[in-house]
Amino acid sequence: MLKLGNRDFETFCCLFLDSRHRLIEFVELFRGTIDGASVHPREVVREALQRNAAAVIFCHPHPSGIAEPSQADELITRRLRDALQLVEIRVLDHLIVAGGEVLSMAEKGLL
Q1: Over pLDDT 90: what percentage of the chain?
Q2: pLDDT of 63-80, one tens digit each?
Q3: Is the overall model pTM greater than 0.85, yes or no?
Q4: Which of 7, 99, 4 is nearest to 57 (CA)?
């Protein structure tokens, strides 16, 4: 929340984790505008493989201040999960940071 909460543009970030879910690296992969960012599954898979990640957590800010996932958020999460499954990398969560709060898509049953 500290790193992404004050952004006035969207960025799509990944926390790459090892097999014991310890952080390997936090990486901002894509930068967008005030209401969206283009996310490319091929690049996410490539970055995860480069770091030998066993799992990932996605996160991005909503500059609007509303911490509810959009249809685009749900769609890209499914596409990324499916792409990463092919190389046996687990998607643990997708966090949305907005208005001083963090929403977990896993906790909401959207993962």
Answers
A1: 58
A2: 877 888 989 889 999 999
A3: yes
A4: 4
The one-letter amino acid at 14: C
Mean pLDDT across 27-52: 86
Q: Are strands 23-31 and 55-61 parallel, antiparallel or unpaired?
A: unpaired
* R_g (Cα) of the chain, nearest Å: 13
> How many angstroms separate the CA atoms of 30 and 44, rounded?
10
Strand 55-61's sheet: what is its strand order? 23-31, 11-17, 55-61, 90-98, 101-104
CA separation (Å) from 32 to 36, 70, 76?
Answer: 6, 15, 15
Distances (CA, A) of 35 to 28, 32, 67, 80: 17, 8, 13, 20
